[in-house]
Design goal:
binds the ligand Nc1nc2c(c(=O)[nH]1)N[C@H]1C(S)=C(S)[C@@H](COP(=O)(O)O)O[C@H]1N2; 24 strands; mainly beta; binds molybdenum atom; 5 helices; six-stranded mixed beta sheet
Length: 372
């Protein structure tokens, strides 16, 4: 198994002869076509229509018969539970609008390029999740005082990094008891679609998407740190294959713009009519608030403040707008945000080995014409 599952390259553009944009491996194309990003036009909506929300599935989408399915809660609890979907849906209901982003968003824009799901910048979306609080079910199961973490196991199984595994992630007990952490069975007012975790998934607002385990099967209280593959090997800010690095956790501040004007089909070049152009987009900052959004229309030399919309739901992206007097010619637009904790998006690309948390300011090349 080990030989067959070894990737051909881990990074591209490192002097191995293949430069960043020259080619993609067929394996990456398979991943890219299974795991769609949100088309950036989707930034226009407060809540992303379900079919436009990004999607990330490590292994396969499991087929689940909800009538037979039970959520098992066990480990260090004095009352282990096996709960049906019907019973979970009878519990007190919570609705929460949450912007979720994949930690690998922007990976394919890095140079050298880490070889994995080749996200450009669309691995983000905002949904209204319906569910019940995780805390209330954990309370019902009665956690042991020695509980340190809560471990979540999905029904999906596969091989990653040559390790056979179910998709598993843990959070600390403090995080698990956070009032906004949900066991969600609804997305945008409908049952979860299979690819988004039917019948039940975790939603950890403010964290990068990997924490929100889909197709939940088992929840366990444990008295130690869970050191599975998706915790200790993947989702690390590391500088090399051997560097253990730091764990990836909360979503970093980021802003994106709705692509202005109209595209060229093949090159995706943006064509804009000269005159006043309303630039618009969204900004989000995980557990922080968005403090400020700035736009540059001269390739990053000068920056001006965009207008922010009214504050919305705590974990949801916020709209911004900026009026630009577009003159004929070629222009490079940039947008960057700052969060309420003082963190800003970098303009120069920082790099890490797995291509995680890339919140570099978006650059958009524009061709302005007198008549379109
Ligand atoms: N069981 C399971 N849960 C999972 C994943 C997975 O592959 N299996 N992918 C995670 C990752 S990396 C992300 S970014 C989000 C994506 O959620 P979405 O596909 O609903 O947008 O789900 C997370 N939960
Ligand atoms: Mo992800």
């Amino acid at each position: 198994m080990a030989e067959k599952t070894k990737p051909r390259f881990e990074i591209v553009g490192d002097g191995s002869g293949l430069e960043k944009s020259e080619m993609y491996f067929p394996e990456e194309l398979v991943l890219a076509s299974r795991n769609r990003g949100m088309p950036l036009e989707g930034l226009r909506y407060d809540v992303t229509p379900t079919g436009m929300h990004y999607l990330l599935v490590h292994f396969d989408i499991p087929y689940v018969d909800a009538k037979k399915w039970r959520l098992r809660i066990g480990g260090l609890v004095s009352r282990p539970l096996a709960v049906s979907l019907k019973d979970i849906m009878k519990r007190p209901r919570q609705k929460l609008i949450v912007t979720m982003e994949c930690a690998g968003n922007g990976r394919a824009l890095m140079n050298p390029r880490p070889v994995s799901q080749p996200w450009l910048d669309g691995a983000v979306g905002t949904a209204e999740w319906t569910g019940t609080s995780l805390k209330s079910l954990l309370d019902k199961a009665r956690l042991s005082k020695t509980t340190e973490e809560i471990l979540f196991t999905g029904l999906d199984r596969g091989v990653q990094g040559e390790e056979l595994q179910y998709y598993q992630r843990s959070v600390t007990i403090a995080e698990a008891m956070h009032e906004d952490v949900l066991l969600a069975y609804g997305m945008n007012g409908r049952p979860l679609e299979p690819q988004h975790g039917y019948p039940l998934r975790l939603i950890v607002p403010g964290w990068y998407g990997m924490a929100s385990v889909k197709w939940l099967e088992r929840i366990e209280a444990i008295d130690h740190h869970f050191d599975g593959y998706q915790m200790e090997k993947s989702y690390r800010y590391a500088q090399s294959a051997d560097d253990p690095g730091e764990p990836v956790n909360l979503i970093r501040v980021r802003s994106l713009m709705v692509p202005p004007g109209i595209p060229d089909f093949m090159t995706r070049a943006r064509l804009v009519q000269a005159g006043r152009v309303r630039l618009a987009g969204r900004a989000w900052a995980g557990r922080y608030a968005v403090g400020r959004v700035e736009v540059s229309t001269d390739g990053g030399v000068t920056w001006r403040d965009a207008r922010l919309s009214k504050k919305g739901p705590r974990y949801a992206w916020r709209a911004w707008a900026f009026d630009w007097d577009a003159q004929p010619g070629r222009h490079t637009l940039l947008v960057r945000a700052r969060d309420s904790d003082g963190n800003s998006q970098p303009v120069e690309q920082p790099w890490n080995y797995q291509g995680m948390g890339n919140n570099t300011a978006q650059r958009v090349e524009i061709i302005v014409e007198n008549k379109l």
